[in-house]
Amino acid sequence: MHKLLVLALVGACGAAVAQTPATNPMPDGSRDMYVGLGVQSLPRYDGARHNKTLALPVLQVQWSNGIFVSGLSAGWHLSNSPSWEYGPLLALAPRRDEDGISGGLGGVGDGSGGGAGATSILPGDGGIVPGGPDKLSKSGNPLLGMDVIQRRILYGGFSNYYLTPALRLSNNLLYGAGNGHDGLRLHTALQYMLPNALPHHSFVLSAGVSVVNSAYSNAYFGVSPRENERNRIGAFRAGGGVHDVRLGVRWNWALSPSWMLTSGAQATRLLGDAKDSPLTERPNNWTVSTALAYRF
Q1: Tens of pLDDT along 184-209?
Q2: How far apart are CA 182 and CA 178, in angstroms?
Q3: Helices (H), 73-179
Q4: 37, 131, 208, 211: which has the highest count of C-beta atoms within 10 A?
């Protein structure tokens, strides 16, 4: 097993942080691939009170030339240093509509959000309420009447530094979020790896913080005057700054040389204008997942 094996879970998470697997020295022309399927429970959108459950495809591929696909992100390791990893990074940001973040059963790059996608878990009719904005208080859905945020391809880069063989400082910078294509997000995390905590078991503990520009914050947490006319939730302009903090754990259980059970949990706390937005029902969110993956 590599010094850090992080299987990215291909799901629909609005503020998903692109994951970069560690450099994996391999013979020229070779590749290492995991494919699997599981389930995850995640917020309808960042700051939502209710979670929803989605089918969870898993995909991670690394090639000997340093190119990798990890969930809904792809990048290229350009460094040959054992202690410093860096390179370009692409990621797919999912669509957000009145039902929350879209998602469904599909591979990397599918992003269709249809067919097998699970709907949000809400009382009654799921928040789609006849009667217009004056029924918002009965719907319990702050996204009712908000503009749809379309899927976006984000681009940027990553830089990871190993402070020790078990402790990695991870940095991902992605640009292009929101309908204006100008949302910027920097996520920095410390990841502590226990590759041999128990026979056939490995763990990764992480703690991170995200900083965003005003365009990102306003895209996901602002309410324009036009949107307020529809949903009457109150106009709000969100500014940039520290956006959230996160704590996470990932557990990988090697059932055999080819099969792995990968599970994870993450707690997120919104801060600043994201926490104060009228769209935020609860600043504390959680995500849990488990999936069975096969190594080719």
Answers
A1: 999 999 999 998 889 999 999 999 99
A2: 7
A3: 136-139
A4: 208
